[in-house]
Write a structure and sequence with these properties.
3-stranded mixed sheet; mainly alpha; 3 strands; about 475 residues; about 5% strand
Length: about 475
């Protein structure tokens, strides 16, 4: 059973409400009524998926049962994601709906779509098949302007209009329950030697052809999306720019330097040079295998799409045949508040997933862009608290990855630093981080005060922080925890 104090770090990804258009929030969105909104969205979406995905009458009973099971799994999975992570906020969600309305005004056939924003830090979006389009905050954080986001919506709407999801499920079930496929599996199962390898090759071949076909579907979606995009006032060249961004969108701030010695330590506990030595092995055990499962929960990867180079070529060819390519894009300055709020939501999503390593890393990098954002400093303190209590419970491998060739060099250097820290280092650095907080009376800083006091077994300050929080924020985001 996890330590009680760790539970205090499973925060909601939201903040105090503000009027639509007032994009000056410095924390992720929160509203006490959000849970009900998410629950209703999840319920209606699941019902919509069940109604849209209908099994063909010519399917055998076995294939129909398989189709129904897959449909139900899809409905429940999408509903669970919405119920858990949807962001029904006052700025980002209305902004997405506003773009959707612009596209529908020029393309009325898209009127059957609905947009849902979720607090997922991965830079992705997907079309469910019933008209629901799910956009991740990580995608909004990685774009440059409204025009690029509009093309993403056009692309996902195109998938819906072309019925790629519904037709894809029919084709998949038809393939796996066809006589030809069953005969191949039966023959492979009857051989005396290498039975496993032959069965594996059959499934690998089928998956390969499915993926290859999926690339063709992406090309179809891009083609229709571009024609829809041209009917709006958005700049055609931004569709091309979007494909270029996909080259590095998984690694935001890739050109930003991060000197950990400038961010960790204080006069009470100065930075130690051996913290930045390359980690040879972690005393916490192998984390990489465990972390892959946690990452997969968040990752609806872009790898299901063609690589950005191919998509760039397709868009470039279409752009060459477009007469009016000089249409100006919306200024990046108008998108900047959207990008900033999306960044906060994405950082908070990493934190909610207990990926304290990524939370710290991105909070530090974005702090260099937004030095006046107190939330980015507060979430660093809370992330150090999460690392401390997991280390104390000998479960640090659950929340801290190891150096890996799959990661960029500068992120591996940061992981080496974190893996070099010991229990007393983590608590001391948490206190240094807390001391540097510009405000000690915000919701996040009060939670940080409470959790630090808990780590130090200081019941007096724990109770003081709790009392102050409940009297100041009677409907705050952490009321249930403090009560």
């Amino acid at each position: 059973m996890r330590h009680f104090s760790i539970i205090c770090l499973a925060l909601f990804s939201f903040s105090q409400p503000s009027l639509f258009g007032q994009s000056l929030r410095n924390t992720p969105y929160y509203n006490p009524e959000s849970m009900m909104v998410r629950s209703k969205l999840a319920e209606t979406t699941a019902a919509s998926i069940r109604a849209k995905f209908q099994e063909p009458s010519e399917f055998s009973k076995e294939a129909q049962k398989a189709f129904q099971d897959r449909r139900e799994n899809l409905a429940q999975a999408v509903a669970a994601e919405i119920d858990r992570t949807a962001v029904p906020d006052d700025v980002l969600w209305p902004f997405l709906k506003q773009i959707q309305a612009v596209i529908i005004a020029a393309n009325p056939q898209c009127a059957g779509t609905k947009i849902i924003l979720t607090g997922n830090p991965q830079p992705n979006a997907y079309s469910v098949g019933d008209g629901t389009i799910v956009i991740y905050t990580g995608l909004l954080a990685g774009l440059e302007n409204e025009d690029q986001l509009a093309f993403v919506l056009c692309h996902e709407m195109a998938h819906f209009l072309l019925e790629h999801a519904t037709n894809g499920l029919v084709k998949e079930i038809k393939t796996y329950y066809s006589k030809e496929f069953k005969d191949k599996v039966k023959a492979a199962s009857a051989v005396e030697f290498n039975q496993y390898e032959q069965l594996e090759n059959i499934y690998k071949s089928t998956i390969f052809h499915t993926r290859y076909h999926r690339r063709d579907l992406e090309r179809q979606a891009d083609s229709l999306a571009y024609r829809m995009f041209l009917k709006t006032d958005y700049a055609p060249v931004q569709a091309q720019r979007l494909m270029q961004i996909f080259e590095y969108i998984d690694e935001p701030l890739r050109d930003s330097a991060l000197q950990v010695e400038n961010h960790f330590g204080c006069s009470l506990y100065p930075f130690k040079s051996h913290w930045v030595e390359k980690a040879q092995a972690s005393v916490w055990g192998e984390a990489q295998t465990l972390q892959k499962t946690a990452d997969q929960v968040l990752r609806d990867s872009m790898s299901t799409h063609p690589d950005w180079q191919n998509r760039l070529l397709w868009i470039d060819n279409m752009l060459r045949s477009t007469a009016d390519t000089l249409k100006p894009a919306r200024p990046e300055s108008l998108y900047a508040p959207i990008k900033r709020l999306s960044i906060l939501e994405a950082v908070d999503a990493w934190f909610d997933a207990e990926r304290y390593d990524r939370t710290l890393y991105y909070a530090l990098l974005y702090q260099q862009q937004y030095p006046d954002c107190a939330y980015l400093r507060e979430i660093q303190t809370l992330s150090l608290n999460g690392l401390y209590f997991h280390a104390k419970e000998h479960t640090l491998a659950d929340v801290l990855a190891q150096n890996s060739p799959d990661y960029p060099d500068k992120y591996n250097q940061f992981l080496d630093f974190l893996n070099n820290l010991r229990l007393k280092d983590l608590l001391a650095l948490e206190e240094c981080s807390w001391l540097a907080l510009p405000v000690k009376t915000s919701e996040y800083s009060l939670l940080a005060t409470y959790c630090l006091a808990m780590g130090k077994e200081d019941s007096k300050n724990m109770q003081a922080a709790k009392k102050y929080y409940l009297s100041t924020y009677p409907r705050g985001r952490f009321v249930d925890f403090f009560k």
